[in-house]
Write a structure and sequence with these properties.
single chain; 4-stranded antiparallel sheet
């Protein structure tokens, strides 16, 4: 149960009831449609909750907000509510102060819901796909893939916590130009093994990494010179197949080590082989959005986006600034472009597989592709404007001792996901990469392995382990965690106790915001704050040696903090250690 929202709802209900009573008594005029807000004041001196009801009603009632607030206060009945008192403040705010029943309700919700605490059914009935990483299978995964992996996986977990039916997917680009370049690169290295490096030039636009050399050597070790006299097409097909059959399982293994499992690895080649790309392009043609020029088939992307801008009410001047351009769907040689395949893939998501919403995690360098893909979905009648969401993530800068790191000390090559996980614990990598996606992040390798309060994941995990140690020790002394019904929440009245309970109640709302904003870093920030609240509580409030009623109340509060810390860490895919 979201006790924070329950209190907000009750403030509005109590105020509305007081207004009705005042109207019945002839003290306020009857008006309809008062839209009042309920907020948590930044300064606790102004109460726990405040409403703008009187300010919102002032114009319609033709009375001053303070006069309205005074009348409401006179008719306010807090009997059986979560509130002990209410008062007028400022220009006409009504401030409410919580009573012990609300604090007891928070503990009961955490205790009763356990691992489900914080979850809701707000997104129930929604079928959502989150596509993330989708790195080209032509080489090792890099740091950007590491960030996209945890952002996508954690966002999917947050959406699941909101009640959505979530599908995790990796799109394998195993067709098109990058695979031809991959095959071309492998062919050059393979022929260099057979004929000598000087005899075979390496393509300037090829993949120059050592992994290409290793794959070519592995093929030669297994098959010798079997492709020496083969046609170029036959060599390309065999080498690309060989390389992909090794690279893709390696990617799957690396991501599994990173605690990421997908519901499906979807292959681009299947779209081409099934004729789905051609069929999708035909649909765009039938809708009147394609034209031929210089032997190629083009999508009228500019016109599609211009129509979308007009529907959105943008001015002709704003539209003119966009410099809208069209895109090739099928080249003069008959091959379909990557954009055509991408349109077909997203049509497959919406039309064939029936996802209500699709979320892609992309690097910021893809920002120019967002509107074009949404527009193509609109042109197919699939409402890409509202159903396709793109989360753009900024770059990662890797630091060690304040210096930028570009190469692995172990391999001397560019940092890959494997290199990173060899140096930094998986949980630390997941924590740090789950930063706000639209900000460039600095990943400090030294900080990620530090065991002190400067390292946020250590700080949070230590709070959980500290509570577990406390529970073990008190249980050994005959003080197990009591049932919530046996606890007197009224005894938890100190500043740090109240602050900790309020922080526990915030978890539900932070999950809601993380799902709304597509920003799972809400959970990181929340957990750091929760750990801080617990550490301050534990420093200020003695548990061991106190009278049984106080000991039990504080022990239950500590256990509630442990439970919520564990829930939050689980959403991030991070362990909650019981000993450190």
């Amino acid at each position: 149960m979201n006790m924070l929202q329950a209190a907000k709802d009750q403030v509005l209900a109590l105020t509305t009831a007081a207004c009705r009573a005042a109207v019945s008594a002839g003290e306020l005029p009857e008006v309809e449609g008062i839209r009042a807000g309920v907020e948590i004041p930044k300064d606790p001196a102004n109460g726990d909750y405040t409403t703008t009801f009187a300010l919102a009603a002032a114009k319609a009632m033709k009375k001053s907000p303070r006069e309205i607030a005074g009348t409401l206060l006179a008719h306010l009945d807090l009997t059986g509510s979560y509130f002990a008192s209410a008062e007028i403040a400022g220009a006409g705010f009504l401030n409410f102060r919580l009573n012990e029943s609300w604090f007891a309700g928070v503990l009961a919700a955490v205790d009763g819901e356990g691992a489900a605490y914080g979850r809701s059914d707000a997104l129930k009935g929604q079928k959502i796909m989150v596509e993330f990483v989708s790195a080209n299978p032509t080489g090792p995964m890099h740091m950007g893939n590491a960030r996209g992996g945890v952002l996508g996986d954690t966002l999917a977990a947050v959406l699941e916590a909101g009640g959505a039916d979530v599908w995790r997917e990796f799109y394998v680009n195993d067709a098109g130009n990058q695979i031809e370049k991959f095959a071309n690169s492998l062919e050059a290295r393979y022929l260099q093994i057979l004929l000598g490096e000087d005899a075979v030039p390496f393509p300037e636009d090829g993949y120059h990494g050592d992994d290409i050399r290793e794959l070519a050597q592995a093929y030669y070790d297994q098959h010798g010179d079997s492709l020496r006299d083969a046609s170029r097409e036959e060599r390309h097909a065999a080498l690309a197949k060989f390389g992909l059959e090794r690279n893709i399982p390696r990617m799957q293994s690396d991501l599994r080590r990173y605690k990421i499992e997908y519901d499906q690895w979807f292959f681009e080649s299947e779209l081409h082989e099934s004729g789905y790309v051609a069929e999708t392009v035909d649909k765009l043609t039938a809708a009147g959005y394609t034209y031929e020029k210089e032997g190629a088939l083009w999508l009228a992307t500019g016109r599609i986006l211009e129509e979308a801008c007009r529907r959105a009410g943008k001015s002709e001047k704003d539209i003119a600034k966009l410099e809208l351009k069209d895109d090739v769907l099928r080249r003069a040689n008959g091959f379909y472009t990557y954009f055509a395949a991408d349109i077909a893939y997203h049509r497959n998501k919406f039309e064939k597989r029936g996802f209500d919403r699709v979320i892609n995690i992309w690097g910021a360098d893809h920002h120019g592709h967002v509107a074009r893909l949404k527009g193509a979905m609109d042109a197919l009648g699939l409402d890409g404007t509202n159903r396709l969401d793109i989360v753009l993530m900024q770059l990662v800068k890797l630091l060690r001792d304040g210096e930028v790191v570009k190469m692995s000390k172990r391999t001397g090559k560019a940092i890959s996901l494997t290199d990173l996980l060899d140096e930094v614990p998986v949980d630390a990598a997941r924590w740090f990469f789950n930063a706000k996606p639209d900000t460039q992040m600095d990943f400090d390798l030294g900080l990620a392995v530090r065991e002190d309060s400067e390292n946020p994941i250590y700080y949070v995990e230590y709070a959980h382990a500290r509570i577990c140690s406390l529970l073990r020790n008190l249980a050994a002394e005959g003080h197990p965690v009591p049932a919530v019904a046996a606890v007197d929440a009224g005894l938890l009245s100190s500043e740090t106790e109240i602050a900790l309970i309020k922080q526990l109640a915030l978890f539900c709302d932070e999950l809601r915001l993380a799902a709304r904003d597509y920003d799972p870093s809400h959970i990181n920030r929340y957990l750091v704050d929760l750990a801080g609240c617990f550490h301050r509580f534990y420093t200020a409030c003695r548990i061991k040696g106190e009278a049984d009623d106080i000991l039990n109340a504080r022990l239950k509060l500590a256990d509630a903090a442990r439970s919520v810390l564990k829930n939050g860490l689980a959403l991030l895919g991070v362990e909650a250690p019981e000993r450190m």
